[in-house]
Amino acid sequence: MIVGFTTVGWLQWGTISQNSEVLRRLAVVEQRLDSVIKSSLNSKSLMTKDECDRECVKNLVSEAIATISGLSQPAKQQVIERVVEKVQTVSGASAKTQYVSLGAGETTSTEWVTIPGAEVTFNINDFGKVTAIYFEAQLHSASGRVYARLNDKNIGPLLDSEVYHSAGDAKLISARVNISGGGRTIGVQLKSEIQQPVKILSSRLRIDTK
Fold first, then answer.
1. CB-based contacts of 17: which residues, under 8 Å, 6+ apart?
2. Of these four, 40, 64, 180, 194, which has the most CB atoms within 10 Å of its CB?
């Protein structure tokens, strides 16, 4: 049985000094998050630890990072997603969630383009009793919309997976999808609304199981 995949290279920082600074800030965020969680769990008005789902954890992370200065909003969003995933893995709050990394790429085409290397072959049945599958993509466009979707080499595009983001800061978008059992090779497709450069900075499948 596949026991899970880790997302590699989720953050793509420009220089070594930037990496060091972000990691330092991430450590501060995690310390603050720990104290926020402890104080929150002691409050009868909030969820118990066992009841704290992904959105609950994300809200706690956002609260912890709110006072961190010197990071742009896209950088803060990336840090939030990274900490959420780490907290879920360590705390067991989402021990029944696994991630399958897909990849990244860019295009200027207004037609769907398959991103080279952004694909994975697997059998969804190997994950056990699956309750939900999500396509998660971090999208960026300087102008116009950027569209992304999954493509099954056997049956074609998964229409329920299509997501988009308008011009502006990079944003993580997700869509619930249906992937049937059996051997599947799932890839990522991308297109631009107005023939301007668009990017998918990272993408993955989120698989929730019982």
1. none
2. 64
